[in-house]
Give the backbone structure.
Amino acid sequence: MKDEHRGHGEATPANAVADSVSDMITSSNITASDAGGAFSGERQAFLAADVGGTHARVGLVAFRPGQEAPTVLAYRVYKCGEYAGMDAIVRAFCDEFAVKPHRFALACAGFLHEGSVVNSNLAWPIVPAALEHALALQDVDVLNDFEALAYGTAYLDAASITPLYVPQQKTTAATGPVVVVGPGTGLGVAVRMPGVRPSVLATEAGHIQLAARVGREQQVLAELVQANTHIAYDYVLSGPGLLRVYRALCRIERLPAVLDSPAAITAAACAGTNSRAVETLQLFCGWLGSYVADLAMLYGATGGIYLAGGFLSGMTKFVEESSFISRFLDKGVMRPFLQTVPVHVVDHAQLGVIGAASWLMDRHMHSKAT
């Protein structure tokens, strides 16, 4: 995976960037008409985006002849809150790189229902038909953002993966289902199923009822919600959730909440400068370990667990030293099974864009074959 390129306030002039993309399109054996015309074949360049509650990652993508993995010709990351809508972000991207693609693979948080994407964490509504009209696109194809991440795991390289748990012995089932879990603005989960033509199951598993162990977890849970109230895992296993747990601990201990953001809590916990922040992140890691173990058992995830999302990559060492692994393995008689399941932290970066692109190309090639 490539490093993220954050597109604004950079030294490279816009015309030089556009020229560079033009050179890459030419060297990839893609014509100018391919980049802006109908979706006509493997060499077609098209837009792919991975849109969450905080960031929109946008890429111009193509498939080189004879190469299975998508090629990202241009890539930018935008803060959703700084734009009036997805159409404004796409216009900014296309203007910068002087391209006019006509197809768009849009991976976004939530799910498509009656023509609109349903998700309370998005900065603005996403209506594919309205995007097609506003941007003069021939097609906008929508999938869940974690569905795209799951497709993208097929193209990961070793530099993008940090092992958290490595089984001592490999099993013959190691090519089984892969579960992708991502705490970010919310909590996303998707499952990539093995096969000649891999498929991905998009889920809303982040809304499963939170399970709290007797002791500190139940004490925090009681501080977070009233009795007999549904509380989902994403209420704690997310950036906003981290802040909720920290504030709950401060109220329990009758201490001032001096930290005011998930980033500040994570930084203080990793540096060991605030005991409530350390306990917050310890609770987070324990809950996450138990949760991903439940998912591994539910889906038979012998292909592994991939943890992706906003802030995990910045606290990998803390997770390694926390109760995460002990909680992951602590499932009674199922411990021997979980000992066969590898767990990794994966660099999010362009993964969702690549996954959305591969999903669209696979749909196109499959429709042609049938």
Remarks:
- The radius of gyration is 21 Å.
